[in-house]
Amino acid sequence: MLRWPLMCALLAGGAGTVAQEPGVDQPIRVNINLIVLHAAVLDPSGRYVSGLEKQDFSVSIDGRPRPITVFQKDDAPVTAGILVDNSASMLPKGSEVLAAALAFARAGNPQDEMFVVHFSDQIRLGLPPDRRFTGSISQLEAALSQFIPAGATALYDAVAQSLGHLRASPLERKILLIISDGGDNSSRTSFAEILDLLQRSGVVVYAVGLYDDADRDRNPRVLTELAELTGGKAFFPAERKDVSKVCVDIARDIRVQYTLGIEGMEDGQYHRIEVTAHDSRNGALEVRTRTGFFAPKR
């Protein structure tokens, strides 16, 4: 019988359906076409809700209810890419950004695998060429220390390259954390293209926007749309000193999510997903997850 890490390895980059054995915490047999959702649940006061069970959730595709075939509420490890804006305008923000990125790494699951992408009008990987991912804080610190502010901002190209990099990870849960102070002014990839890539990837985006009043290229709409499309969230701290706390909050958000699996379609079309949850104390709860998926074509 397959446990969760092995199932994740089999499902990475593809789809599958599973059968669940009574009394066993995780699904066992992989068939075809599983749509995996990662959902954060909040009460009316904005506090994370833990302890929910499968029967507390409902999932619909294009308005039609679908049974949940996989359910997990454990703190499963993720592969996370930390994308750090290295454009010239980030120079005065460097120390806070690097401290915040390290705070995010330290607050994660010890089994998380991470990598660093520095982007301006050029894109550089922070880890050595022979190491795609690492769980070592010291290696991540060395990767982040290669922060060299100069040039313009190729945010969409950095996201596209990071999505390609993530395909090499065997872990099913994949995250991008973007820390930037602008929109995009030098990518070859368009905004529409990056939205399409994200919809097809299942990767969840979190973003931290560090905007000053004088920033001419600031565009909070870009970070907000990238995050909300994927079931993540964008944050815009009022002061730089708050960036580390925000990144720790993001790590916590990731660690308290529920994993839901439903059987998908095979028609090559885009389908909208809606997930709802409730408990006896609060009634209806807020659920944050991705808004849809592209089905494979069989």
Question: Nutshell version of this structure?
Answer:
The protein is of the alpha+beta class and 298 residues long. Helix content is 26%, strand content 28%.
Description:
The chain has 298 residues and is of the alpha+beta class. The protein has two domains: 4-75 and 258-294, no CATH class; 79-254, von Willebrand factor, type A domain (Rossmann fold, 3-Layer(aba) Sandwich). 26% of the residues lie in helices and 28% in strands. The chain is built from seven helices and 16 strands. It has helices at residues 4-11, 94-106, 137-144, 155-166, 191-201, 220-230, 243-255; strands at residues 18-19, 29-30, 34-42, 57-61, 64-66, 68-72, 79-85, 113-119, 123-125, 174-180, 204-209, 234-235, 258-263, 270-279, 283-288, 292-294. Strands 3, 4, 5, 6, 13, 14, 15 and 16 form an eight-stranded antiparallel β-sheet that branches. Strand 7, helix 2 (94-106) and strand 8 form a beta-alpha-beta unit. The radius of gyration is 19 Å and the shape is globular. The two termini are 27 Å apart. Residues 1-31 have low confidence and may be disordered.
List keywords for this structure.
disordered N terminus; 298 residues; eight-stranded antiparallel β-sheet; six-stranded mixed β-sheet; 7 helices; 26% helix; single chain
Amino-to-carboxy terminus distance: 27 Å
Average predicted confidence as pLDDT: 88
SSE sequence, one letter per element: HEEEEEEEHEEHHEHEHEHEEEE
CATH architecture grouping of the largest domain: 3-Layer(aba) Sandwich
CATH H-tier superfamily of the largest domain: von Willebrand factor, type A domain
Percent of residues in beta strands = 25-35%
Examine the coordinates and then state which fold CATH places here, giving the name of the CATH topology of the largest domain: Rossmann fold
What is the number of helical segments per DSSP (H or I, 4+ residues)?
Answer: 7
CATH class of the largest domain: Alpha Beta
Largest sheet: 8 strands, antiparallel
What structural category arises from helix and sheet content? alpha+beta
> What is the quaternary state of this protein?
single chain
**Integer count of domains:** 2
